[in-house]
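User: Continuing from earlier, I have the next pair ready.

Assistant: Great, send them over.

User: Here they are, in order.

Assistant: Folding the first of the pair now:
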Amino acid sequence: MPDLATPAGWLPLAFMAVMGLAILAYVILDGFDLGVGILFPAAPKEAHDRMIGAIGPFWDANETWLVLGIGVLLVAFPKAHGEILGALYLPVAIMLGGLILRGVAFDFRAKAGSDQRALWDRAFFFGSLLAALAQGWMLGRFVAGFASEPLAYLFAALIALALTGTYVLLGATWLIVKTEGALQQDAVRWAKAGFWWMLIGILAISATTPLISERIFARWFSLPYLVLLAPIPFTTGLLFFILWRSLKRLPKRLSEGNEYGAWVPFAATIGILFLAFYGLAYSLFPYVIIDRMTIWEAAAAPESLFIVFVGALVVLPMIIAYTAFVYRIFRGKAEPLSYS
């Protein structure tokens, strides 16, 4: 490990932290609006405008975090960018196609006549589903170290389904917070289905990462780490329990007009994702590609990194402030999105 007191030592760490923040923020923020799009076929047509209203002010800004994460990977870690994007060229292209289709459908459905709106609703669903499945496939391939064995591809397919289900859970719990009435009750039911997919995904990744690397196995299951890290799986399990208990209790409470605790499923889901992300980051560090390339080996020259770091000090707080401002302005229950 390089001397962390020098720019060559601490700059790659700083950019890894920024990239990690961007990826986590994207999964949570764009995850819920992808989930809402995936839920379109399950909802009655009269609920679609309200579902769009629940994500309308946020969805475009949420994708800023994806641009930031990929941008940091390209600028700060060019060697890793070439290797990762080279191995994931096809799913990246599919993801971008899905995001483009989703964006076009979002705008066109508002301008289309009633006879064409169903077409754009299907396009919005299909674009959201494509993007979610592609992102899950990429995560699975990355965690498996881009191995070419059949089991590695089966694992990637499982994670693709699990991440899509996780987005469904995020979207459904967001709708619980932002809507009311029949749609809110439907969202509770959808969240219960997504719950099991997120549980399967986290268990699969947690079981696989120690098995593919002796280094990762030792970091989790040797003393004193086994004791020191025990709060992570314990807290994750507790949050899963809180999430499920809340989803079981909410239907009766909401039917009585009691909104108390409507935010708990969404908050618990975010907590679980944060802990899962922390555990994966702990397993990977200091590698940007498992056991093949460290962040210092993948990093650009310190002189280049420092110039970009100065820019990041300006841009990152602006993105965070803008995101917080938008969510504060558009807090409260969603209304059907309308254009006049």
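And the other member of the pair:
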Amino acid sequence: MLFVEDVDLTPNPHALKFILNERLLNIEKRQYSSKESAESDPFAKAIFEIEGIASVFYMDKFITIEKNPQASWGKIQRAFVNMLKNFDKTQIPAEREMVGTSAEDSNALLKQVNEILDRKVRPALAGDGGGLEVLGIEGHRIKIRYQGACGSCPSSISGTLMAIESLLRRDVDPAIEVIPA
């Protein structure tokens, strides 16, 4: 049975990170910004059934829930804990095989960027209930999308973005520009 071991505040005032007793995913990260986008994932869909949910992000042993500004955490947390107790974990869709993307295989810059992000950035973002996806590279312009608590957090949109760009400029190429999706 799934249950919440701990709840962490995130830098995003509308998001909480729920640390679970069991691993949900080994490799993948799943982000849903609406009930409709979660239609094929019974787990995320069940979370969206709770009134006031704005987005759901989950990976490894945690779930980050973002609420609508007018919603109450008290009502959401109670409903979420009850949903977890009654949810059959086997209904979580199986992970897809992650065999390295052909884009990364053919783009040395993309591979180098992802290696640095995996080592130095993504663990810190996960610690705050979020994640980061590289959507693509055109020349030296890298397009990223924040996930989870980072998706609508004011500090990720400014400070974290500049820190990532500075890190990649220092460790990879001074011409790199990082832009959010």
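Worth noting for the second one:
The longest helix spans residues 108-127. The chain is about 35% helix and 30% strand.
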